[in-house]
Amino acid sequence: MPAPRVPYSSASTAAATAPRPAGRHTAYPPQSGHPGQSGGPAPASAAAAKPAKQRDAFFDNAKYLAIVLVAMAHAWEPLTDHSRTAEALYMTVYTFHMPAFILISGYFSRSFDMRPDRLKRLVTGVAVPYVLFEVAYTFFKRWADDDPTQPISLLDPWYLTWFLIALFVWRLTTPLWKIVRWPVPLALAVAVLAVISPDIGDDLDLQRVLQFMPFFVLGLFIKPEHFQLVRRREVRLLSLPMFACAVVLAYWAAPRMTSVWFYRRDSAQELGVPWWVGVVMTLALFGCSVLLTACFFAWVPRRRMWFTVLGAGTLYGYLLHGFLAKGSRFWGWFEEYEWLHQPVGQVVVTVVAGAVVTVLCTPPVQRAFRFAMEPKMEWAFRRDAAALARERAASR
């Protein structure tokens, strides 16, 4: 998938924690600015009077580290059939990497409303990339997998594009979550109802949209002080045994359960279990995901690092690395090179996945693909009346 973009920077000061423009940091991931900020061009005098808001390194670091974990987990998937250790690491990372990305997407969508400029950014920063990459992935599968019958279907997201359609739906529902009394429990109830509803089908990948939605809603109502809380020293120390316990539990569970639960794309009935198992698994996974996400945030650096600048390109890394991740399966690399299943090979696969997604988040790649990820498309929208009035007033 993948934000993308899924996860966002604010500033360390209270004023700078306001969300940034939605067209940039959509998610898992999510896209390069901060979703959800009140947008619109400021008058030239105001722009000159106020310095540009500084990005919070913490959120850019979190986005980058989350997208690296996404790429590594995708690289581990072919190894899980032959290695219980790989399966345990895979399940552990899948417990929190997308929830973390989605939670940050929600956090930077807090100010989203139906204002025209924000709707424009939602279209250009989420809907248009979804259409373009859905088509691109379809043609890629036709070529790489020798499957000329693969249909183009905008109603059935393929592979990583589900995150974009999910983000589009989640953000549109933001005003609704702001007016209900218990938004997170309500979103969790919707997720529970989804997992026991096999008739939802595959349209717009609604199972994933609904089952992952509690993390987005949770992000909408998290405050800056909550992130400060998880960064305390005692929380960092406590997170280490928590991660260790998670890996041990995943190692025990690896041969006893399917990792498909972590994808949240199927109902309980489709997985061949009673409906009540779906309810239990949804609630249990939500609790585990929130806990491990907090542990992950506890170890995200707060200061600027060499990779901080890459946090603005996580959606690029998310969507582009999918071609290599799927291509490696289509071309049979893991079957042809048996040494990849050995411990040394697994380390090599992990390092290569991290390196590839790092390169794909860099500014040159962003510039090369900005036409698809962040198109301006001024020609497609009516001119805003307020902006026109400001221009006329300035020209007098």
Automatic annotation (TrEMBL):
Region Disordered: start-end pairs: 1-47
Residues of the Acyltransferase domain: 57-360
Residue spans of biased composition, Low complexity class: 9-47
Keyword hit for Protein transport: no
Transmembrane domains' residue ranges: 58-76, 88-109, 121-140, 152-170, 182-200, 206-223, 235-254, 274-299, 306-324, 344-365
Keyword annotations of the record: Membrane, Transmembrane, Transmembrane helix
Pfam family, one: Acyl_transf_3
Descriptive protein name: Membrane protein
